[in-house]
């Protein structure tokens, strides 16, 4: 490399290191999950937390016994809203809610049974 | 926002569309005027260069025009 | 060097290098498929392909970005730099498979143009954590396409080395876009602390090595030598340079190679015009300074490639007083004839 390229590399990497590090920290900060766990229903392996900005985190502590588990949002009229996604096994899941969502519900579509419901 | 996206994608599409037309001309005819090494290269080399010509066509067009001006 | 362009400039070493690249990539993909099927059998084949090729592209991108600073810190890594171009094209192909499968899987189901859909399926451009990460991936892939498609000596020559190098330095922007693409994707689609952890480790390693290498080079650049009354820089004793070899010195922030050829000394700029290879680490073959990277050649007395080639590098004036070599720090124009100095 010639001297000017060496200099350019130095400033690009100093800049990138600071910029990327700052962005990653800001993204994590922006997520800001409220630490309070929403109402959990006894006997069910669910924990649901909602961040300040329309993301809901669902923690499934053990596998479900039901064959299917679709997550729906509950809209302002307390009706079933859009499908947010599916729970496939133990783990943490994140779903983005629409602005007027007031809660979520997990439904077994095969047996057509509500497994879990929580409102915010 | 949607307007910005649409304008951007149209500009991007035009860039690559024009690149495609220029690329065809360059690979079959124009390239050898710019670089005599291309004359003796195998045809498959031109095929390999094609995507790159589409991506960087304004630079190559400018150089091709300068070369033609110098020749005349 | 030749008078025509080759499809791919292969030689024995490059073929071995490429076999390692291909084998490594195939083994990774097989391992990824097997491990995913064992641990997460519910995933669809398309999802596994998207994740396998995406993660492969990121791993190869990390390797590519780490080669540069590693060789600057320790020259024993130079052999990996030798064929970085093929590694770059392989990485683009892996990223392309990831991109195409993602577009087919997520953006071709509606009535919108799939490319428009990448930009409009999530319009949360004002959000930091919910920013449409697909758009970042699209731009990164676009940059990687420009780089991979111009990875041929034809473009290096015809775009000019300066523009070519500038285009290829866009890889750093692509890296930043890829990091944010994966980081946001990992947050929005699944909470994978493992992915995020590995990504942060990779980022710390790459940026750390680049910054350390940059400061090391800066130290070499700022080293001050002893000047004589005419402002010429004292560099070494004549017998410190081996016959047909060179020693490299820093003169006014630039690296200069002083070669000894048949007991005469000549100095030229250390940077090869082809891909910036260190000429001073090469040797003189058939009277020509030969670049250790790709064999580009220059005549010691004028820094010009022998005809019909047209590459030229700067030359420098030398003098020898009582066995000590002095160099005029002001470079001569590229290709200027300077008579070699007898030791």
Write a compact overview of the structure shown.
Chain A is an alpha+beta fold.
Task: Produce the secondary structure layout.
The complex is a heterotrimer of chains A (120), B (72) and C (343).
Chain A (H helix, E strand, L loop, with lengths): L2 H29 L14 E5 L4 E6 L9 E5 L5 E7 L4 E6 L6 E6 L4 E7 L1
Chain B lengths: L1 H33 L8 H13 L1 H15 L1
Helix pairs in contact in B: 1-2, 1-3
Chain C lengths: L11 H28 L5 H29 L4 H4 L2 H24 L6 H7 L12 H17 L3 H6 L2 H8 L2 H19 L3 H30 L3 E2 L5 E5 L8 E6 L2 E8 L2 E6 L13 E3 L2 E3 L6 E2 L16 E2 L1 E4 L2 E4 L13 E2 L1
Antiparallel strand pairs in C: 1-2, 2-11, 3-4, 4-5, 5-9, 5-12, 6-7, 7-8, 10-11
Describe this structure in words.
- The complex is a heterotrimer of chains A (120), B (72) and C (343).
- Chain A is of the alpha+beta class.
- Chain A has 1 helix and 7 strands.
- The N and C termini of chain A lie far apart (58 Å).
- By secondary structure, chain B is mainly alpha-helical.
- Chain B has one domain (2-67).
- Chain B has 3 helices and no strands.
- The longest helix of chain B is centred in the N-terminal third of the chain and has 33 residues, at 2-34.
- The N and C termini of chain B lie far apart (48 Å).
- Chain C has 2 domains: 12-220, Up-down Bundle (Four Helix Bundle (Hemerythrin (Met), subunit A)), CATH 1.20.120; 227-342, Rieske [2Fe-2S] iron-sulphur domain (Rieske Iron-sulfur Protein, 3-layer Sandwich), CATH 2.102.10.
- Chain C has helices at residues 12-39, 45-73, 78-81, 84-107, 114-120, 133-149, 153-158, 161-168, 171-189, 193-222, and strands spanning 226-227, 233-237, 246-251, 254-261, 264-269, 283-285, 288-290, 297-298, 315-316, 318-321, 324-327, 341-342.
- In chain C, strands 3, 4, 5, 9 and 12 form a 5-stranded antiparallel β-sheet that branches.
- In chain C, a hairpin with a 5-residue loop joins strand 1 and strand 2 (233-237).
- Classes of the chains: A alpha+beta (120), B mainly alpha (72), C alpha+beta (343).
- Chains in contact: A-C, B-C.
How many domains would you count in the coordinates of chain B?
1
- So how many helices of chain B? 3
Please tell me what the overall shape of chain B is: elongated
For the record, the CATH class of the largest domain in chain C is Mainly Alpha
Radius of gyration of chain C: 25 Å
Q: What can be said about the biggest beta sheet of chain C?
A: 5 strands, antiparallel
Number of strands of chain C: 12
Give the helix/strand class of chain B.
Answer: mainly alpha
CATH topology of the largest domain in chain C: Four Helix Bundle (Hemerythrin (Met), subunit A)
Oligomer: heterotrimer
- Amount of helix of chain B: over 70%
| Helix-strand topology string of chain B | HHH
């Amino acid at each position: 490399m010639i001297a000017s390229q060496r200099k350019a590399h130095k400033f690009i990497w100093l800049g990138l290191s600071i910029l990327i590090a700052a962005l990653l920290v800001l993204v994590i900060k922006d997520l800001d999950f409220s630490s309070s766990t929403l109402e959990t229903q006894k006997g069910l392996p669910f924990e649901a937390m909602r961040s300040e900005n329309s993301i809901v985190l669902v923690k499934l502590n053990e596998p479900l016994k039901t064959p299917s588990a679709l997550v729906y949002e509950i809209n302002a009229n307390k009706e079933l809203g859009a499908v947010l996604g599916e729970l496939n096994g133990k783990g943490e899941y994140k779903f983005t809610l629409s602005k007027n969502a007031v809660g979520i519900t997990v439904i077994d579509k095969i047996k057509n049974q509500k497994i879990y419901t929580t409102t915010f | 926002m949607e307007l910005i996206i649409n304008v951007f994608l149209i500009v991007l599409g035009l860039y690559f569309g024009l690149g495609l037309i220029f690329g065809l001309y360059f690979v079959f005819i124009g390239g050898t005027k710019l670089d005599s090494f291309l004359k003796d290269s195998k045809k498959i080399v031109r095929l390999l260069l094609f995507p790159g010509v589409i991506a960087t066509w304004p630079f190559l067009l400018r150089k091709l025009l300068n070369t033609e001006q110098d020749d005349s | 060097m030749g008078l025509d362009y080759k499809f791919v400039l292969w030689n024995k070493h490059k073929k071995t290098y490429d076999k390692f690249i291909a084998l490594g990539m195939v083994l990774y993909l097989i391992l990824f498929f097997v491990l995913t099927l064992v641990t997460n059998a519910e995933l669809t084949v398309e999802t596994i392909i998207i994740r396998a090729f995406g993660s492969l592209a990121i791993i190869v991108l990390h390797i590519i970005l780490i080669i540069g600073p590693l060789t600057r810190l320790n020259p024993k890594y130079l052999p990996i730099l030798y064929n970085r171009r093929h590694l770059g094209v392989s990485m683009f192909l892996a990223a392309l498979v990831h991109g195409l499968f993602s577009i087919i899987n997520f953006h071709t189901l509606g009535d919108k143009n799939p490319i428009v859909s990448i930009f409009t399926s999530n319009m949360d451009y004002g959000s930091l954590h919910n920013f449409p990460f697909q758009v970042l991936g699209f731009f990164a892939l676009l940059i990687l396409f420009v780089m991979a498609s111009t990875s041929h000596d034809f473009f290096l020559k015809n775009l000019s080395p300066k523009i070519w190098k500038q285009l290829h330095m866009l890889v750093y922007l692509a890296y930043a876009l890829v990091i944010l693409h994966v980081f946001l994707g990992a947050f929005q689609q699944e909470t994978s602390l493992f992915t995020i952890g590995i990504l942060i480790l990779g980022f710390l390693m790459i940026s750390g090595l680049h910054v350390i290498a940059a400061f090391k080079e800066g130290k070499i650049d700022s080293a001050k030598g002893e000047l004589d009354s005419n402002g010429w820089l004292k560099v070494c004793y004549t017998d410190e340079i081996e016959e047909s070899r060179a020693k490299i010195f820093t003169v006014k922030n630039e690296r200069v190679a002083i070669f000894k050829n048949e007991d005469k000394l000549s100095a030229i700029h250390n940077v090869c015009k082809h891909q910036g290879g260190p000429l001073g680490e090469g040797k003189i073959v058939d009277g020509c300074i030969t670049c250790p990277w790709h064999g580009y050649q220059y005549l010691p007395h004028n820094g010009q490639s022998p005809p019909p080639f047209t590459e030229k590098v700067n030359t420098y004036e030398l003098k020898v007083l009582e066995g000590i070599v002095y160099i005029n720090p002001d470079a001569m124009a590229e290709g200027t004839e300077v008579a070699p100095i007898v030791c």
